[in-house]
């Protein structure tokens, strides 16, 4: 099956060649200003876990000249300031590469971006942060260009990327569960075995809070942090809070995902980008609640554990590798009906409410675990080693 994917990609390449050639000609008359060591291609700069990871990666190379291309139309520019640094240049090309009515502009930009990379005096590294445009760009680059991809989770991209695997020297995945699902996919599609050896596990890292000896609130309250997309199921958090008779709050663009009848009983912080404000919000709650159908390993769990919150989460992705029921939180069976998830979570919260000493023990354990496993040092070292391999 895999050879057919390769053939399809090559035929598509022939069809779009005139557009790519036009893009190269445009690049000749509208050149990219400056010389760059690393080209990053990211979809968005609105609020999101992936966007936060991308911003941290981009800032790991202060001694290098970095250029970032954003290729999709973001909902807002909330995270854009996080991508700024003296050595970073940002280009937002989403108006051209994310326009289904003028899709030929996307094809032209593939040639244009390839020409920009080709004309660098020193061969740069190209990093693809789960970006569809970058996959389509990859065949247009010279073989000596080292291309690296980052996959956050098993999604539709897991299939889209298959015919472009030959162009990537390394694949980064953030969770063991994601790696296994991709390996299973490789086997189903008969992808050559040597591509498995290119996969690297690099867990996300977070800037750890300096103050860890804070006083946690005595009131038991739930916090949800993230988007309101369907697979996250944030409405279950509101239902759990109602069933348990406890307050709940939501940080992120979530309000529209909560049924109208549940909104009056919960608090919405909206989108926040100020680090100090986000830190205060975490510290005002005791339990981080994740009710997703699928995940990799959410950064919000790292951030919450680092501040002593207990974890109440579905047993998806790599969450069970870090959260053990009774030790630092409680895992919910994600395969059971939603009503059963709500009931099981409410029972857990009732127990914690009656045994506050266990929550205090969980807080201490989670702070200790986060400091041992979630710091930025290993994250930074792994990415710098991978991107700067064979680079002076």
UniProtKB/TrEMBL annotation:
SUPFAM superfamilies xrefs:
UDP-Glycosyltransferase/glycogen phosphorylase
> Where in the sequence is the signal peptide annotated?
none
Q: Which UniProt keywords apply?
A: Glycosyltransferase, Transferase
Q: Quick check: keyword rRNA-binding in the entry?
A: no
User: Which molecular-function annotations from GO does this UniProt entry contain?
Assistant: glycosyltransferase activity
Q: Which Pfam families match?
A: Glyco_trans_1_4 (PF13692)
Record bears the keyword Disulfide bond: no
Highest taxon of the source? Bacteria
Which named protein is this? Glycosyltransferase
């Amino acid at each position: 099956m895999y050879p057919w994917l390769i053939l399809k990609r090559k035929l598509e390449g022939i069809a779009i060649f005139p557009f790519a050639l036009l893009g190269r000609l445009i690049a000749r008359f509208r050149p990219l200003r400056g010389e760059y060591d690393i080209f990053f291609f990211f979809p968005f700069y609105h609020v999101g876990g992936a966007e936060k990871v991308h911003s941290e990666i981009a800032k790991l190379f202060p001694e290098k000249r970095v250029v970032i291309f954003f290729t999709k139309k973001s909902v807002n520019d909330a995270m854009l300031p996080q991508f700024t640094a003296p050595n970073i240049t940002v280009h937002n090309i989403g108006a051209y590469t994310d326009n289904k009515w003028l899709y030929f502009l996307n094809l032209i930009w593939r040639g244009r971006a390839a020409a920009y990379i080709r004309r660098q005096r020193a061969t740069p590294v190209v990093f693809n942060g789960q970006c569809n445009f970058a996959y389509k760009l990859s065949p247009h680059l010279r073989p000596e260009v080292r291309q690296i991809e980052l996959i956050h989770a098993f999604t539709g991209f897991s299939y889209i990327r298959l015919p472009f695997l030959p162009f990537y020297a390394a694949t980064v995945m953030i969770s063991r569960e994601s790696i296994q699902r991709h390996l299973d996919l490789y086997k189903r599609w008969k992808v050559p075995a040597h591509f498995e050896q290119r996969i690297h596990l690099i867990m996300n890292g977070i800037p750890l809070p300096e103050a860890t000896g804070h006083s946690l609130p005595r009131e038991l309250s739930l916090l949800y942090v993230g988007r309101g997309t369907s697979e996250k199921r944030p409405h279950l958090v509101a239902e759990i809070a109602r069933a348990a008779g406890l307050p709940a709050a939501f940080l992120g663009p979530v309000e529209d995902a909560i049924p109208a009848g549940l909104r009056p009983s919960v608090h919405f912080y909206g989108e926040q980008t100020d680090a100090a404000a986000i830190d205060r919000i975490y510290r005002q709650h005791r339990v981080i609640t994740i009710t997703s159908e699928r995940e990799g390993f959410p950064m919000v769990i790292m951030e919450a554990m680092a501040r002593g919150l207990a974890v109440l989460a579905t047993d998806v992705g790599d969450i069970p590798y870090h959260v053990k029921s009774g030790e630092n939180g409680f895992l919910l069976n994600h395969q059971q009906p939603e009503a059963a998830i709500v009931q099981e979570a409410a029972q857990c919260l009732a127990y914690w409410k009656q045994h506050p000493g266990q929550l205090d023990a969980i807080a201490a354990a989670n702070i200790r675990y986060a400091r041992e496993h979630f710091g930025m040092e290993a994250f930074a070292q792994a990415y710098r080693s991978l991107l700067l391999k064979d680079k002076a």
